[in-house]
Description:
8-stranded antiparallel β-sheet; alpha+beta; elongated; 39% strand; synapse; Lamp2-like_TM; Porin; 2 domains; 1 helix; glycoprotein; Lamp2-like_luminal; 187 residues; 3-stranded mixed β-sheet
Amino acid sequence: MLFYLQTIYKVMDVPSNSNVTGKCNKTEQNLTLSWESQNKTTQNNFTIHFVKNETEKYYSLHHFEISLAAEEFPNDKSNKTVTVIHVTPQFKTGLSNSYKCIKEQQLDLTLKGNNVTVGFLKVTNLQFQAFRGDNTTIFGLAKDCSFDTPDIVPITVGCALAGLVVIVLIAYLVGRRRSQARGYLSM
């Protein structure tokens, strides 16, 4: 058997006239955007699933799935629908807050029922809020992804400051010992 891999880059914007549906439960909510494929024979879908942790008072993006008509891809003559998913829970946010991220983020995509990465989704200028208790249309206080720093940054800064304190303390003690050895008295 001979297998070949073909890399395809496809930029797709979700049309502004997409149909929107959703389900709101106490611990899980989802939102589905649907739009017609290029040949208007199939519906493309983008579904986002949010999960709430009531004990720790946060929610997160649990997973999302994208179903696209095969006709959306060049050189694909099949009439199948391709479904890819991203299942890593991300974007942990307080219950009354929204999540906002302007910088580009890359999310790996796998085929449904498979654990092999087959593509990725690049997202920019993202803001969402789930599990909203009122009917307002304004986002709550945003948790910004630019403030998400990895744990290594504060650990490195702390270690550098501790090393600097040790160096200054050693220099002080050495200087004090030399001045006492010369006969100077400190007051």
